[in-house]
Amino acid sequence: MQIRIDVDMHYRFAKPDTLLLAFEAAKSPGQRVLEAHLDLGDAELHRFDGDSGIGERIWARIPGKDMTLSYKALVAIDRPPFDPSALKQVPLHRIPGDVAPYLRPSRYCQSDKFTAFVAKRFGGRSGGAKVAAIREWIEAELTYVPGASDADTNVLETFAGREGVCRDYAHLMCSMVRAAGIPARMAAVYSPGVTPSDFHAVAEVWLSDGWHLVDATGMASADDTALIAVGRDAYDIAFMDSVGPAELVSLSVKVKAA
Q: Would you list the domain boundaries of the chain?
């Protein structure tokens, strides 16, 4: 399928600032960027490869006190729906070096704290079947509540409170899958099924034939999702990070099937 992405944002700063941005749909396996237009005014831009070679990050030097950004894209999604049933877990000694870091705990995903719970609750399953069971458990147990968490909320708080937004669902998914000995990473994506329309966070899991997108909220699926960036957790995939304080004036993210 094809999806159209329309992003507009306006931020204000106390003084000229330098931003780290990650919001463009990636040119990566499973998707093709057919059209793309970016307008960042008179900002000075420097691009570099994103984590694990997925997409690009942008250093943007903002010469004034306002940043107005417009990004429009048309993306073709070629990947099939994710069916984990026949996929196996890769033995630890065969996990590639570039994948191995996604087995470890990270700032917001304290996966080592979930080892006993995952072994007890999902111990009878393995590989893709275990990933599917974890995803279903998270969707059933958590309640999607906008405003229930903030940038400092970690996965232990989400597990205890049983509510959150997409980043919290993805953090819990990554943590539990890593606790099962399966690599998992956080992914920033666009999908037309996300309500309300916004930047979205999901997990990617490493099984027998590579990385697979998994959304514990149930709003997005692999065949309608455009990947932006990946990382260990939300810290690595933020769409914007500024050196100084940033005041949000307006933000609009619209994603729809073309």
A: 2-78+239-257, 84-237
Reported as a single tens digit per residue, the pLDDT across 98-125 is: 999 999 999 999 999 999 999 999 998 9
Q: How far apart are CA 222 and CA 214, in angstroms?
A: 7
Instruction: Provide the 3-class DSSP secondary structure of residue 20.
Output: strand
Q: Which residue has tokens 């400092």? A: 152
Asked if 13 and 255 touch (Cβ cutoff 8 Å), the reply is: no
Q: How far apart are CA 44 and CA 36, in angstroms?
A: 19
Does the structure show a pLDDT above 90 at 31? yes
Amino acid, res. 217: T
- The contacts of residue 120 (CB under 8 Å, 6+ apart) are none
Task: Say whether 69 sits in a helix, a strand or coil.
Answer: strand
What phi-psi label fits residue 13: left (phi over 0), alpha (psi between -120 and 50 degrees) or beta?
beta
Each residue's pLDDT tens digit, 201-231: 999 999 998 999 999 999 999 999 999 999 9
Q: What is the second-level CATH architecture of the domain 2-78+239-257?
A: Sandwich (2.60)
Q: Which residues contact 152 (CB under 8 A, 6 or more apart)?
A: none
pLDDT band per the 50, 70, 90 thresholds, residue 86: confident
What's the predicted TM-score (pTM) here? 0.96
Query: CATH second-level architecture of 84-237?
Result: Roll (3.10)
Ramachandran class of 164: left when φ > 0, alpha when ψ lies in -120 to 50, beta otherwise = left
**Spatial distance between the Cα atoms of 56 and 47, rounded to a whole number of angstroms:** 6
241: helix, strand or coil: strand
> SS3 for 147?
coil
